Amino acid sequence: MEACNGFLESKNRRLTFEWALIDGVNDRPSDAIELAQICRSFRVPAHVNLIPLNPTPGYEVKGSSRNQVQAFCDQLVGMGANATIRRNRGTDIAAACGQLAAGQPVQISRSK
Questions:
Q1: What is the pLDDT of residues 23-42, one digit of tens each?
Q2: How many other β-carbons are positioned within 10 Å of the β-carbon of residue 22?
Q3: What is the pLDDT of residue 107?
Q4: Which among 12, 52, 77, 97 counts the fewest CB atoms within 10 Å?
Q5: Which residue, 70, 84, 82, is CA-closest to 39?
Q6: Under CATH, domain 2-91 is a member of which superfamily?
Q7: Domain ranges of the chain
C-alpha cells in the first residue's frame, strides 16, 4: 500500500489494478468487498480491470464464468469502486496472457 500511495503522490495519476478472476479463489462476494475497500482507500479511488483467468495447459484452475465476472463487477461498482470488464484476447490460439509462458504446472493456494 505504501508503494501505491507513493505512486499517487509522485505521478498524480489514478492507480489501476489488474484482477484475474479465478473460479472459487478470488471471485467471491467477500473478495469483492475487500477489493472495493482497498480501491476506495486511496486519495484518488483506484480502478480495477477485471478479466477471467486464461485457460493454461498444466494449470488446474479455471477462470470465472461470464456471469461470475459480471456479478463481481456489479458488486464492486455497487460499493463505489471503479471497474471495467476486459475481454480475453488470444485464447483461441493459446497466445493470451500467461499461456505462452506455461512450461510447467503451477500450484496455487489461498492463504485465508
A1: 999 999 999 999 999 999 99
A2: 18
A3: 60
A4: 12
A5: 82
A6: pyruvate-formate lyase- activating enzyme (3.80.30.10)
A7: 2-91
